[in-house]
Write a structure and sequence with these properties.
Layout: E1 7-13, H1 17-33, E2 39-43, E3 58-60, H2 69-73, E4 81-85, E5 89-91, H3 99-102, E6 107-111, E7 121-122, E8 127-128, E9 131-139, H4 142-160, H5 176-184, E10 194-196, E11 205-206, E12 220-222, H6 227-232
Parallel strand pairs: 1-2, 1-4, 2-3, 6-10, 11-12
Antiparallel strand pairs: 4-9, 5-12, 6-9, 7-8
Helix pairs in contact: 4-5
Length: 237
């Protein structure tokens, strides 16, 4: 494994104590398999518990209380290369320490499976979202960080704008994958190299994937949190 000066893992937990508890479980699972891992936590002050500080080398408690607070956090990474992992994931294999050797280009992520995503095709099937943004690696270079900032800005517009400002189906409003897809089609970001992990299901095995999706042992298992529990744990209740 190649060692680089400042690589790390980024976890975001906002809005619900249930997400926060899941984020802590994820951090513990990373350290179980990679004790020297650097992990950054982005969360809200109301959620953070001091007892968990030892798990992280960087903590930000000023993250917006937003359903996609992760998009605000991504460009604020403290690391040279970052692996972002959704809070509802669990690390299950020691190969987690090799992820930065698996990076290809500026952004490396996994593919959406058409039988797994809530909405994959749109515009009467002419277009398709292929980027699963629940696990991704990215480099801390100027253009990629600019892209991450734009992703957050554009997603807020996408969620809130009335009337719907885009030529594509309005059913896409909730999906940050759609925002990613739109930005990737802009000339400004055409030089960002976006690629998929080899054997990508190992790096983001969603809980409803077919058992043969991953050729090797699963590294990151992606749970789906119970919506009622998430709502019950909301700090806005």
């Amino acid at each position: 494994m190649k060692q680089k000066k400042n690589n790390g893992y980024l976890i975001v937990a906002t809005q619900s104590k249930y997400y926060y508890q899941s984020a802590i479980f994820l951090a513990e699972s990373i350290l179980d398999y990679y004790p020297d891992a650097k992990i950054a936590l982005f969360t809200e002050e109301e959620l953070f518990e001091e007892v968990h500080r030892y798990l992280f080398d960087h903590i930000n408690v000023e993250t917006p209380s937003h359903i996609r607070g992760k998009l605000w956090a991504l460009p604020r990474t403290p690391y040279e290369n970052t692996m972002y992992i959704d809070a509802d994931c669990e690390v299950r294999h020691e190969d987690i320490c090799t992820v930065f050797d698996e990076m290809i280009g500026d952004i490396t992520l996994t593919k959406i499976r058409d039988y797994s995503g809530a909405q994959v095709t749109f515009n009467e099937g002419r277009d398709e979202m292929i980027y699963h943004c629940g696990v991704l690696c990215y480099s801390n270079n100027k253009l990629t960080i600019d892209f991450m900032n734009k992703w957050w800005e554009e997603y807020k517009i996408q969620r809130e704008a009335l009337p719907w400002p885009y030529p594509d189906d309005e059913s896409l409003r909730p999906w940050d994958q759609y925002t990613f897809w739109r930005l990737m089609r802009m000339d400004k970001y055409k030089n960002i190299s976006v690629n998929f992990f080899k054997d990508d299901a190992r790096w983001n095995f969603v809980n409803n994937y077919k058992s043969d999706e991953a050729k090797g042992e699963i590294i990151v298992y992606h749970h789906t949190l119970n919506g009622e529990k998430v709502h019950a744990g909301s700090i806005k209740n």
